[in-house]
Amino acid sequence: MKIRIEEMNGIRTLALAGRFDASATGGFKDTFKGLLQEGSANYVVDLQKVDYIDSGGLGSLVSALRQTRSVDGDIRISGLSGKVRSVFELTRLHRIFEIFDDELQAVKSYRTN
Known about the structure:
By secondary structure, this protein is of the alpha/beta class. It has a single domain (about 1-110), classed as STAS domain (Transcription Regulator spoIIAA), CATH 3.30.750. The protein has four helices and five strands; from the N terminus they run E-E-H-E-H-E-H-E-H. Strands 1-2-3-4-5 form a five-stranded mixed beta sheet, sandwiched between helices. Helix 2 links the parallel strand 3 and strand 4 (about 75-80). The longest helix has 15 residues, at about 55-70. It is globular. The termini are far apart.
């Protein structure tokens, strides 16, 4: 899995590409831990180019959300494909994460809260 990190309007965005499965969770967790240590609190994780996610990927997102909320931050999800969206709905994670159609909408949502 590839991770592209950018900043938009003070919000860190992580665009993931490929399979977000158990073999990719270590890289995601390390990257996310580094961003937290830099002091970032609000994130958008763009899954538009993720074609597969398993329980390891979902668990990594939930763990990252817990860490972020412990420092009064949040994670918003964007760009879910049909398959990945159905996994979020099946596991009810769409009730835990705010989900947006695209990265820009997710970033803008921080200004309205």
